[in-house]
Amino acid sequence: MVDIPSLISMLLIFCARVTDVSLGTFRILQLVRGRRMAAALIGFFEVMLYMVVLGHILGGGRVLRPLELIAYCLGYATGNYVGSYLEDRLMKGYTLVEAMAPCDEHSLEVIKKLREGGFGTTVIQGEGKTGPRYVIKIICNRKDIPEINRILDNIAFVSVFDVKSCFGGYFRMKRK
């Protein structure tokens, strides 16, 4: 038979673990979306909860002092941030930028600027809520997204997708 304090302890451990794993899942989603600071902050609290519960479960062992716990949590949070930063900077990744723009002369000028900037740009005509739209598709390196966004100059609704692999077609060459 389980006594009441043990039952309460198990219930608290269960709830803490559900919260810890939920935070971990949410943290991963933030990392995938490139929200490093949010992921680092969530990771800080995720690992703090984990360490407190682990200390409770193991009991009898040396309990981390508050500053040690904070140092451990900050290391974990910073690791999330740095790992995401390194992945973003070191991994060569392709991205599909898809922009829905009005069918007008200004959009055609923007498409021309994209192509003059060296970006392979495919244009498809589609139909939006308010009429015809250009669907502008650009596969590029991730690092080119800010420049493409600058050229698009808020004329379009833009979606960005990770591309697992691609071959053929036209890719912008590095400028020397």
Structure description:
It is a single chain. The chain has helices at 4-32, 36-58, 66-90, 105-116, 145-152, and strands at 94-102, 121-128, 131-141, 157-163. It has 176 residues and is α+β, with helices and mostly antiparallel strands. The protein has 2 domains: 4-90, no CATH class; 94-163, 2-Layer Sandwich (Alpha-Beta Plaits). The protein has a 4-stranded antiparallel β-sheet with strand order 2-3-1-4, covered by helices on one side. The protein is elongated. Pfam families: DUF2179, DUF5698. It is found in: Cell membrane. InterPro entries: DUF2179, DUF5698, UPF0316. One of its GO terms (cellular component) is plasma membrane.
Number of strands: 4
Q: What does the largest sheet look like?
A: 4 strands, antiparallel
Spatial order of the strands forming the largest sheet: 2-3-1-4
Shape annotation: elongated
Low-pLDDT stretches are none
Q: For the residues shown, what is the average pLDDT?
A: 85
Task: Give the tally of structural domains.
Answer: 2
Tally of helical segments: 5
Structural class: alpha+beta
Over all CA atoms, what is the radius of gyration? 24 Å
Q: What gap, in angstroms, lies between the N and C termini?
A: 76 Å
InterPro entries: DUF2179, DUF5698, UPF0316
Keywords: Cell membrane, Membrane, Transmembrane, Transmembrane helix
Subcellular location: Cell membrane
Transmembrane segments: 6-26, 38-57, 69-86
Question: Could you write a compact summary of the structure shown?
Answer:
With 176 residues, this protein is of the alpha+beta class. The protein has five helices and four strands. A four-stranded antiparallel beta sheet has the order 2-3-1-4, with helices on one face.
